[in-house]
Design goal:
single chain; 548 residues; Rossmann fold; Formyltetrahydrofolate synthetase, domain 3; 3 domains; four-stranded mixed sheet; 19 helices; 20% strand; globular
């Protein structure tokens, strides 16, 4: 089997103007970045507003494991398959972050024969969106420090705004600024509030307003200081103006793809940009999007943050699972996952069942399970998994898009279309806006995670009291490990009666949510002992190699 990058580089891409024409987009509405990448212009987005919306398909997954689930691959494969059965579909996903590309996770453009291309461009600098977001974030930090240096007319006492960098660099987690001897640090760009704002803003005016609403410091008098007080939001918007236009590419099978924004779901809200999602819904009959990590993180935030703020409503949820990953959740060892083990599978299915239950019960969703096929999956294991899913009034479908492209997911595509036609989704949110922040946290912990209680640190408890006074209407964005329903990454499967430990709370005022930092989660990851970067190189022909 060829590597992902070999498959991608061997593909014959169509000119991006030809892909655009399949959606009725004329060349004048594109801002080209070469022959195969473009952005949709602001005027193009404006012209789409009178068109009706297509159907929105949310792809999510079981809790991630080292065995792999393949959510992005399934998202791309499903979009290809929908076009293959004669539907007009667009895939709408996030941009990769350089940190994971060079770290442990690798790229985020799919895999096998279900990829978006050109994969090396998308995985690396792409159109420079993340660099613009990094620059906007750090411009604000520089303006804060300069204001203090120039006399501190606002009376800034405690600076809460941090710098960011789109790279895993543990050495920058905590730093000291010489000017004020203040302790601060760097977050990875995808955890920046600027990234969250970028992905939730409806248009440039909304983007500028949200940037101005960022709280950056506290004054000596105890009053909050905002980016607008520093007159920073106009210049930040100028840095983001071009980046804010959605990126337009294609899959290996020439399905149109919008790839825009990229907040992580374990430390942010984990969804691609609102402007890209809404544009896609105007351009296609079916839009396939994904939410980061497992359904307890990405899907919950998609519903409770993105849908709450924008009025979007998904028509169906597809939960991706693999036999291997479920066996791991059931106690299996990584070295034995290719060997049939019904006992481990049955134990691990509890994780999938909770995700199904959450989507059905708490969000009113119709659910389909996509079994991402591996060659070592036995017939007995597949049948066991299908039977368990069917008992929850769901359909489970084996998908082979990684090896076969869209042809390997046509059964899933047909099931999605038929399920949407049934119209049984009655979308709802997990909690109401007017609920106190404490009850919102408890709703997520108890209903989604199976926790017994929420335990706040002394610092988190104090911040909760302060935030409750003015921001109780905000939704909660839980930052926790993606590997477990709990805040302990070692608790696999579907743990119950555990305690969700909240270490800190952070106001993302411009984004419009409260971040709850749980367990040992960090907003600046580190690199593994053997990072993916050791495999990445440029050959004598000038081609990038080693990306995955």
């Amino acid at each position: 089997m060829l590597s992902d990058i070999d498959i991608a580089q061997a593909a014959k891409l169509k000119p991006i103007v030809d892909i655009a024409q399949t959606l009725g987009i004329i060349s004048e509405d594109l801002i080209p970045y070469g022959h195969n990448i473009a952005k949709l212009s602001t005027s193009c987005i404006s012209k789409l507003q009178t068109k009706p919306n297509g159907k929105l398909i949310l792809v999510t997954a079981i809790s991630p494991t080292p065995a792999g689930e393949g959510k992005t691959t399934a998202t791309i494969g499903l979009a290809d398959a929908l076009n293959k059965i004669g539907k007009r579909a667009v895939v709408c996903i996030r941009e990769p972050s350089l940190g994971p590309v060079f770290g442990l996770k690798g790229g985020a453009t799919g895999g096998g024969y279900a990829q978006v291309v050109p994969m090396e461009n998308i995985n690396l600098h792409f159109t420079g969106d993340f660099h613009a977001i990094t620059a906007a974030n750090n411009l604000l930090a520089a303006l804060i420090d300069n204001h203090i240096h120039q006399g501190n007319a606002l009376g800034i006492d405690k600076v809460t705004w941090r710098r960011c960098l789109d790279m895993n660099d543990r050495a920058l987690r905590d730093i000291t600024i010489n000017q004020t001897h203040a302790n601060t640090g760097f977050d990875i760009t995808v955890a920046s509030e600027v990234m969250a704002i970028f992905c939730l803003a409806e248009d440039l005016a909304d983007l500028k307003k949200r940037l101005g609403n960022i709280q950056v410091a506290i004054s000596h008098a105890g009053k909050p200081i905002f980016a607008s007080d520093l007159q920073a939001h106009g210049a930040m918007t100028a840095l983001l103006k071009d980046a804010f236009q959605p990126n337009f590419v294609q899959t290996l099978e020439h399905t149109p793809a919008l790839i825009h924004g990229g907040p992580f779901a374990n430390i942010a809200h984990g969804c691609n940009s609102v402007v890209a999602t809404k544009a896609a819904l105007k351009l296609a009959d079916y839009v396939v999007t994904e939410a980061g990590f497992g359904a307890d993180l990405g899907a919950e935030k998609f519903m409770d943050i993105k849908c709450r703020q924008t009025g979007l409503q998904p028509d169906v949820a597809v939960i991706v699972a693999t036999v291997r990953a479920l066996k791991y959740h059931g106690g299996g060892d990584l070295t034995s996952l290719n060997v049939e083990n019904i006992a481990h599978l049955n134990a691990g299915i509890a994780n999938l069942k909770r995700h199904i239950h959450n989507c059905q019960t708490h969000f009113g969703m119709q659910v389909i399970v996509a079994i991402n096929h591996f060659t070592h999956d036995s017939a007995a294991e597949i049948n066991t998994l299908k039977t368990a899913v069917e008992q929850m009034d769901c359909e489970a479908i084996v998908c082979k898009h990684w090896a076969e492209g869209g042809a390997g997911a046509t059964e899933l595509a047909s099931a999605v279309v038929n399920t949407i036609k049934q119209g049984k989704t009655h979308f709802k949110l997990l909690y109401a806006d007017e609920m106190p922040l404490t009850q919102k946290l408890e709703a997520i912990a108890q209903k989604m995670y199976g926790a017994k209680e929420v335990l706040l640190s002394e610092k988190a408890a104090q911040k909760l009291l302060e935030l409750e006074q003015q921001y109780s209407h905000f939704p909660i964005c839980v930052a926790k490990t993606q590997y477990s329903f709990s805040s302990n990454p070692l608790l696999r499967g579907a743990p119950v009666e555990h305690t969700l430990e909240v270490q800190d709370l952070h106001l993302s005022r411009g984004a419009g949510f409260i971040v709850a930092i749980c367990g040992q989660i960090m907003k600046m990851p580190g690199l593994p002992k053997v990072p993916a970067s050791v495999r990445i190189d440029v050959n004598t022909a000038g081609n990038i190699i080693g990306l995955s």
